[in-house]
Amino acid sequence: MTRTKNESAWLKARHPVLLENAGLCQKAAAVLPCGSSFRFASSAMNILVADDDRMSREMLRRIIESDEDHTVTLAEDGEEAWKHLCDSTKRFDVGIFDINMPRIDGFRLLERMRATASLRDMPAILCTAAADRSTVGKASALSVTHYIVKPYTKAVILDKLKTVQEEIARHGMEDRDAVLKRLGMDGETYAVLVNALVEEIQNWLQTTRYTADLSRFSKLAQRAAGLSGACATFGLNSLVARLQEVEFTLVSDSAASQGQQSPLLFAQIAPIFELLDQELKRVRRQVDLA
Predict the structure, then answer these.
(1) How many angstroms separate the CA atoms of 60 and 77, rounded?
(2) Fewer CB atoms near the end CB (10 Å): N or C, the chain?
(3) Average pLDDT of the chain, as a whole number
């Protein structure tokens, strides 16, 4: 699908600050929606390991560094881990935390993270001696779905990290510095464009959510494909996944309904719209905090 001729004009009208640099306008217009979907993902992760047992920490580091190009930071307890997490010069993709640690244990560390906007969505893997119902319940309440039951094996550790890696690629955001380098763009311009894109998706969502004529679903699905392509360009993989889900549902429901209105179809789509809306808010929060 070719790009529309009005994209650069749209960008200039919407963001006058970019008028100061005509070349920047052209570069920015080049990454606006074009209807194609593609993804970018980095295989290496920055991993924070917190365990009060020195041998366990060292063992985890050796296992993790034996695969891929992961970077590992070690902490001897939850308090030291929290200091690393609060260091603005550091950014972690996932944490591996022992539950039973002095000063700040794994659960208290996670409670602090979930109460902090910049750390709320960071994936975590808990190390536990037994994945009993009580432990699983507490972890689930803190948005933890991955566990390593001691004694663990190298295969288990690497398999868990691979699973988290795939989830990040599917539902997360590409590393910001990698996106800026790939697009040849500074952070301020990136934030302006991503916020504008999020606003466009929110407007599209508002229109789609209250569309009573199902015959329009096909065109709305085409627009979703274009927005999905723009999200992929900016490394917003979580939005790519949500928009592709919406697009598939709109196309399927449009074909199934044959243009007839159906409250049942709207009831089926509503939860998907809600998930997309939540993801839009999360992405905007992450961009504003960066």
Answers:
(1) 14
(2) N
(3) 77
